[in-house]
Amino acid sequence: MRFAARLMWFALGGGWTACLWLVGAAIFGRVPGGEPLCRAAIEMAGLSISPFGRDAVHVRDLGGQDAPVTPARRILGLALGTLWMLTFGMLLSAAYLILGALCCLTVRGLPLGRQCFKLAGIAPWPAGQRVISTDLATVPRQQAAVERFARARLRQSSRDGRADRPGGLPPATAR
Questions:
Q1: CB-neighbour burial class of residue 170 (10 A; exposed 0-12, middle 13-18, buried 19+)
Q2: Model's pTM, two decimal places?
Q3: Rounded distance, CA 140 to CA 57, Å?
């Protein structure tokens, strides 16, 4: 059954969407500063060919350290990311949304449609994404969620003025 699903995926659009990813990688690989987009596009082409059992996770969720960011690098990255989104990102996202809608017309196509919608969400801004197995992707996502929750809780407690009191208790009210 797995082989049939993979063959059906490739025939229904996985192959030609991977070609679109590779065209984008070739174009942005020649642009100065476009290497992160090129790398991400090549990884997403591989994910587009065979998405089952694999998922894309952002490098910061994997514990990777970003390179020091200068203002010029930040502006260049934003400009190239916006250019990607306006060209290949929206094209790929629209293609995946259409393919996903078509796949969801049948019960057997529902898993294929789910994969299309997953890739449609990645396509507009793929820089920084790494492709890993689905089993391994849950661990960094859970850790990142716990860290975000802890930071939000700390911000909330500092706003409420409880950060400097023992036990985070509110001040006693006068009667």
A1: exposed
A2: 0.75
A3: 8
To the nearest 10°, the Cα dihedral for 80, 83, 84, 90? 160
Residue 31: the pLDDT is: 87
What gap in Å lies between CA 63 and CA 147, rounded to an integer? 12
The string of pLDDT tens digits covering residues 18-61 is 999 999 999 999 988 888 889 999 999 999 998 888 888 888 77
DSSP, collapsed to helix, strand or coil, labels residue 102 as: helix
Q: Angle, nearest 10°, between helix axes 90-103 and 110-122?
A: 170
Q: Would you say 97 and 123 are in contact if contact means Cβ atoms under 8 Å apart?
A: no
Which tens digits make up the pLDDT trace of 64-88? 655 567 788 788 888 888 999 999 9
